[in-house]
Write a structure and sequence with these properties.
450 residues, alpha/beta, Substrate Binding Domain Of Dnak, Chain:A, Domain 2, Rossmann fold, 6-stranded parallel β-sheet, disordered C terminus, binds iron/sulfur cluster
Length: 450
């Protein structure tokens, strides 16, 4: 069997060859054009995911909806063969995605309040347990509200899992007595963690995987999530989940650790003057944005090691679930500024972008002149949409891993690499000096090099 990579596979129309067009389309589409179309579609999937969560809270935007329709239309058979136009559409996806993240942030803040940093317990509390995973705060809110309405806040404790962790930082979610703490790490370990959790589990979106028999009879899906043979909760009516939880063994109080989350541009902007002062004094040498998905790939060890190797005069901004590999360490502070700031879910990269733009503005620099390095880990299409936003913003020298996108042909990846200086992670030992050096290549008149 040949190990040569198939550069394209398209079977979307009736002109398809048997098994799909795999060398060149009967329509004339070549592998690079096919790759660009797929790259666009994957970015649109990411935009759709965030738009969905804004939409489920009642927030809509005509421009986002219109762009999704137009961009998808361009990928139909015999519509657009212009590769340059697809590169433009990919960057336009980045712009629209920034707008979508902004809309979702507005939806979260206006619905659940302005987030504040919180210490989230990782132990357990006395009572029956419900574990909520995925990204839908709307589903979590409805569940907590219904527990309260049924008078069961002392009987049932709700735990967040993976990307649901930052829910604790929103006042209108935190005010529910039933919301207790965080259980487990990222989605990658869910089969073991769900097996060990004695209560009921609710999956609200990705990442959820087909269940083991150990917990298949006590997991539910809601919203966009679905699992074969698992009951699905429609219309956010969690009565069946709550009643089921009452039949599961009570959990005992067990003290655990604490995880800090809930940083947001609204609570970090007031610290920016101090951060600039520390940069100018050389006390903060470099800012690392290390975030993104967790992936069951041994190369994810790169992120664990890199964060461990960072010098003490650097700070880390993070978001999404890859952080569970390195968020339980005590990174300490630099003159009161925490060295590790968790901004929450993947969409909260929006806050990091707002802060970076403000930092650049106050320093009179463009984003690429800042002593900032972005290191992304990607699993799925939301991370791809975030990457497009960063490229749209003109940010160069982004490191991505744990592997290059399989959906890009080598020549399309090379094109992006050349245009945006996109870098694949290698080893922390090799990459770290180059990352740190970025902070020392500023112009002589830069206040940062003073
Ligand atoms: S759109 Fe083109 S490449 Fe795709 S199946 Fe039809 S003919 Fe083949
Ligand atoms: S950050 Fe990515 S990998 Fe993690 S739960 Fe969200 S979608 Fe899945």
């Amino acid at each position: 069997m040949s190990s040569q990579k198939i550069l394209m596979r398209c079977d979307q129309c009736s002109m398809s060859l048997a098994g799909g067009c795999t060398i060149r389309g009967v329509c004339g589409k070549d592998p690079d054009l096919n790759a660009l179309q797929e790259a666009l579609i994957y970015g649109l999937k990411g935009v759709s995911a965030y738009y969905y969560h804004a939409y489920e809270l009642g927030y809509k935007d005509d421009e986002i909806g219109a762009f999704l329709a137009e961009a998808l239309y361009t990928t139909l058979t015999n519509v657009n063969f212009d590769k340059k136009r697809f590169i433009e559409l990919i960057l336009e996806t980045g712009r629209i995605h920034l707008k979508t993240m902004e809309l979702l942030d507005k939806a979260y803040v206006e619905t659940f309040g302005v987030p504040t940093p919180v210490e989230v317990p990782t132990g357990t509390e006395e009572g029956h347990g419900i574990l909520v995973t995925g990204h839908s705060y709307k589903a979590l809110y409805e569940l907590l509200k219904q527990i309260r309405e049924m008078g069961l806040e002392d009987e049932i404790k709700v735990y967040t899992h993976s990307e649901m962790l930052p829910a604790h930082s929103y006042p209108k979610l935190r005010e529910f007595k039933a919301l207790y703490g965080n259980w487990g790490g990222s989605w990658v370990y869910q089969r073991q963690e769900f097996s060990e959790f004695p209560g009921v589990i609710v999956a609200t979106s990705n990442c959820v995987v087909p269940p083991l028999k150990q917990y298949a009879d006590r997991i539910y899906t809601t919203s966009v999530a679905g699992l074969e043979g698992v009951p699905h909760i429609g219309d956010y009516n969690f009565e069946a989940v709550i009643k089921h939880a009452l039949k599961t063994p009570r959990m005992k109080k067990v003290e655990g650790g604490k995880i800090v989350t809930g940083f947001h541009h609204t609570n970090v902007l007031p610290l920016l003057d101090k951060i600039i002062e520390l940069i100018n004094e050389g006390k903060i040498r470099h800012i690392f944005v290390i975030g993104g998905c967790d992936v069951p790939n041994p190369k994810m060890g790169y992120y664990e090691k890199l964060t461990q190797m960072l010098p003490k005069d650097t700070i880390i901004l993070t978001a999404a679930c890859g952080k569970f590999r390195y968020n339980r360490r005590d990174y300490g502070t630099i003159e009161g500024i925490p060295r590790f700031l968790d901004f929450g879910q993947c969409n909260n990269v929006y806050s990091i972008i707002v802060l970076a733009a403000e930092l650049a503005k106050r320093l009179g620099k463009d984003l690429n002149q800042l002593p900032v390095t972005i290191v992304l880990s990607w699993l799925e299409q939301k991370a791809i949409a975030i990457l497009y936003t960063l490229l749209y913003l003109g940010i160069k020298g982004i490191y991505i891993g744990p592997r290059p996108p399989e959906f890009l042909t080598p020549s399309v990846f090379e094109e992006l690499r050349k245009r945006f200086d996109l870098r694949l992670i290698s080893t922390p030992e090799e990459d770290l000096p180059k990352m740190l050096a970025k902070g020392t290549t500023l112009s002589d008149d830069s206040p940062l090099s003073a």
